[in-house]
């Protein structure tokens, strides 16, 4: 056959004068992992028959990764050889068995391309870190996002990665602690890694959380450097709450309406009257919330106070429809505060005390008479009540000021003048007192409370129960002093008669008349018996029932005016002289010496 080699059926080729032995290349396979970032790689070359003369010149490198690559060695013998090459640029690198130069046998399947390596010496990168799940706008986790598996971190790589190796996702600076709990992680595709978390409501506020992804290798074994995305997301599961409920007015109060300022931990919206209620501690008349205003974190609530007396407080009752800027509901309800003591009841007097029920001479002088009124509640001691005498108008009393003895007891003081008058059953009226919230007292009237008696008992007349006539030595004669009112004698009252005799009236005696007995003495004489003086002995008293001292001035109606009593006891004989020098004859039988 011209132009074609002839075979002899046993593997020899007849090319005319020369006969060549043949063989075949069974395989050219990779000895290393693929893809690869290694500096050198090798292939295993398997032949059908033993072959000699194999060298680097029988091979070549091809593919996009051949630039800079070179065969560095060929080792082996017989039907098995190893070809090693230094890798160059990234790309596919293929070993070709493409010539038979120097070979002991001619491979019949030349040229033959072997398996290729995907050479990738450029490290993969995390091109971006993003978030997935129910994340609120602005990458913010709030109460709305709380739940299982509701938050994911997604790492997007620059190239396909080895999905047998999982990267690590963490939060290197602003640790969210228990707000995020790891659930699972997986490769969504060779270039996308997802880490899934539960979102827990720990009532925390953590801003600008950094996310870091480390580890991971591409399919060639090149590790990806760590990537951190700063301030990727924030957590705000902190619920707003009422910080304070403050009264806007003093307490106690009798105002028809009161208000409170309510301060919240942060700005809220959706708040209204329905979020509030009142605590009513005993008030009647149905107190109710009447007005509501405010914005942001400060609001004002106004309520009517009803009637009666009791306590009124504001309650942040519920958080319905009330959220902060991030949608977290108002929490920590109910909470109450700003307690008002409300008092619409007028104070009343429940005890009246006088220093005396009968004003007499003993009380004459500055502050001699006091009226004390005790109220049933604490009063405003800056406001003095008015004390008056609405019916009898006693001129003997002059107001000299008032003083609060304590927060419930007011005392009015009066100077007492001795006008020598008698006023019975004087009424007292007290008005104008105010309790500490400004309620004016109910009018207090006390009827026939006290009397005034500065009228002194006087001797109206001096009389005698002894009949008119002439009385001599040893005769008893009654002397009676008649007073203008009953009197009380303690001690001795001496009545001096015009005879010079003194009649002592000894107490204790009481009555409108006091009597003593005069016994006519020797030498006592009076043409019309009369009283010359009346006086008390030392330490003795003569007072009326009001303890006023009696006036002992002799009355115009003296004894001589009212009786005709003659005292005639003759002259007093001090001695009798008998002339014993001579005999005297006489009928005198008795000499009486008085």
Summarize the structure.
This protein is mostly beta strands. Helix content is 1%, strand content 50%.
Structure overview:
- By secondary structure, this protein is mainly β.
- The N and C termini lie far apart (222 Å).
- The chain is 1% helix and 50% strand.
- A hairpin with a 4-residue loop joins strand 2 and strand 3 (19-23).
- The strands form 13 sheets. It has a 4-stranded mixed sheet with strand order 1-2-3-10, with no helix packed on it.
- The protein is built from 1 helix and 46 strands.
- The radius of gyration is 68 Å and the shape is rod-shaped.
- Residues 1-13 and 582-594 have low confidence and may be disordered.
Rg calc: 68 Å
Task: Give the overall form.
Answer: rod-shaped
Count the E strands: 46
The main sheet orders its strands as 1-2-3-10
Oligomer: single chain
- Overall SS class: mainly beta
Strand content: over 45%
pLDDT < 50 stretches: 1-13, 582-594
Distance between the termini: 222 Å
Separate helix tally: 1
Largest sheet: 4 strands, mixed
**Overall mean pLDDT:** 92
Q: What percent of the residues sit in helical stretches (DSSP H or I)?
A: under 10%
